[in-house]
Amino acid sequence: xxxxxxxxxxxxxxxxxxxxxxxxxxxxxxxxxxxxxxxxxxxxxxxxxxxxxxxxxxxxxxxxxxxxxxxxxxxxxxxxxxxxxxxxxxxxxxxxxxxxxxxxxxxxxxxxxxxxxxxxxxxxxxxxxxxxxxxxxxxxxxxxxxxxxxxxxxxxxxxxxxxxxxxxxxxxxxxxxxxxxxxxxxxxxxxxxxxxxxxxxxxxxxxxxxxxxxxxxxxxxxxxxxxxxxxxxxxxxxxxxxxxxxxxxxxxxxxxxxxxxxxxxxxxxxxxxxxxxxxxxxxxxxxxxxxxxxxxxxxxxxxxxxxxxxxxxxxxxxxxxxxxxxxxxxxxxxxxxxxxx
Length: 341
Description:
There is one protein chain. With about 350 residues, this protein is α/β, with parallel strands linked by helices. It contains nine helices and 14 strands. It folds into two domains: about 10-130 and about 295-310, Rossmann fold, CATH 3.40.50.720; about 130-290 and about 320-330, Dihydrodipicolinate Reductase, domain 2. Helix 4 links the parallel strand 4 (about 75) and strand 5 (about 95-100). The longest helix has 20 residues, at about 310-330. The radius of gyration is 20 Å and the shape is globular.
């Protein structure tokens, strides 16, 4: 029986790059989490990753890890189409689940996962690491304080370059494409900052002619309090920004999504009046690793009963917007995000 101050014993399903280069090393810095096991469908890959990262146990199947009674929670960095099946199996095996974003392929899958969560009485969180990063909490605080007046518009851009058809993000049946992979971030964060759900959405998608995944997405999200507009692209120069426009000023997040773990994050605050930027001041936040914070917050929820930062009810809202954006791209009309109950 784990004690209140014991670290949560984690297992990792898969040796995805994000897991072995970012999430696992970050969680290993924490006193709240212990990475106790890793699994791969290739036993050699699991053994190599375990040796390199100092993980005590390696398994050649996901089933073996889920059968390990010492494991309390699992982190799932598998391709998108495997998120719900393996999250559900982990829950049925008695494990709490932190699953990579997007947690599902559609709203119906989120509801299936909610049923598995409630059936087992366990915790499930979607791994939107930005949700608990201090720079996003600070933006929300600044806007609430009235620094830029009334928030009217959020604008974002997120892009990278990828043309490898073998990459999991290039396979439509696996939930590939830019809207699922990176468009989910401005959707999630605009919902977080407005603290509302969009009433309707409009989108335009361009698809790669060979891989059949969306490579350029433009979207408008119409909220009761304002609008969010964003573009995301997977065959463009790497870049990311989020800006927040109010009646009196503007806030800009310099690196909103891949916040560096080795240097301070910067928030630019422009209280207006100078198009040349001479009135801009910079809030510099201390160095943190957002993946450490993400693991800490979920481990704290397990041990101390604090809220899961991004529960599946939040995931329902995000996926409803994504579903509606895909419908809008087909219909050419505004579409309403729908959550069937």
